[in-house]
Write a structure and sequence with these properties.
The structure is a single chain. Helices cover 47% and strands 11% of the residues. By secondary structure, the chain is an alpha/beta fold. Strands 3-2-1-4-5-6 form a six-stranded parallel β-sheet, sandwiched between helices. The longest helix has 16 residues. It starts with 5 loop residues before the first strand and ends with a helix.
Length: 219
């Protein structure tokens, strides 16, 4: 790689500890409306890192349910609003890595399958919005991760060579999008089931402190 000039971060599970939040809001809907009980481990293995559209299709094809995507969108958004997404915590070392990279003059951007409202609510609550030059959210693209479109859009916005860009992701879905866009991808997760799916990542690390050290060594 050339000198790293930009780092593209995923949001859910990478910068914010959101998966239990999503699980705790989806699980009651699935249990009460569809008679399906899922565990948190099952959520991590089958749902985490995917869009609502993907998860609805998966519920219908693999669980034999009849879930309407629009109904699920409204049901989950209603629960998110009541639960208050601003309570979602940062992942360990998230602010530390953003601060250091910013101080070093790196351009930072966010590439997420979440909606802009989620980005504003959570990162706004933690006062992290100013670190990012731009946000590629679900509204920004026609084809979300694992399609490379979100990362290709980010590369276009950055206007620098791909070999000066590093992606930080936590799921196979996001890593697939990054690699198919021709980018170097560091995966960060302690979830063993996810680590086994990340053989296509350039590195698989345990936390953002390790990512910070790795980025130093890459420069």
């Amino acid at each position: 790689m050339n000198k790293i000039n930009a780092v593209l971060f995923d949001l859910d599970g990478t910068l914010i500890d959101s998966e239990f939040f999503y699980f705790s809001n989806w699980a009651p809907i699935l249990a009460e409306d569809y008679g399906l009980d899922i565990s948190f481990d099952e959520w991590i293995e089958r749902f985490a890192g995917h869009t609502l559209h993907h998860n609805v299709q998966m519920l219908n094809s693999e669980y034999g349910l009849k879930v309407d995507e629009e109904d699920m969108w409204f049901a989950t958004r209603a629960r998110y609003a009541k639960a208050d997404m601003r309570t979602i915590r940062l992942m360990p070392h998230a602010k530390e890595i953003l601060t250091q990279l910013s101080d070093e003059g790196k351009t930072l951007a966010l590439v997420t399958s979440s909606y802009q409202s989620t980005v504003q609510a959570v990162l706004g609550e933690h006062k992290l919005l100013h670190f990012f030059k731009f946000f590629v959210t679900r509204e920004s693209v026609e084809n979300p991760k694992p399609n490379p479109e979100p990362y290709l859009l980010a590369v276009d916005k950055l206007g620098i060579p791909k070999d000066e860009i590093v992606v930080v992701e936590d799921t196979s879905t996001g890593c697939t999008a990054a690699k198919e866009a021709g980018l170097y991808c560091i995966a960060v997760t302690k979830q063993v089931v996810e680590q086994k799916r990340l053989t296509h990542a350039d590195q698989v690390l345990n936390d953002l402190a390790e990512v910070k050290n790795s980025l130093i060594s890459l420069n």
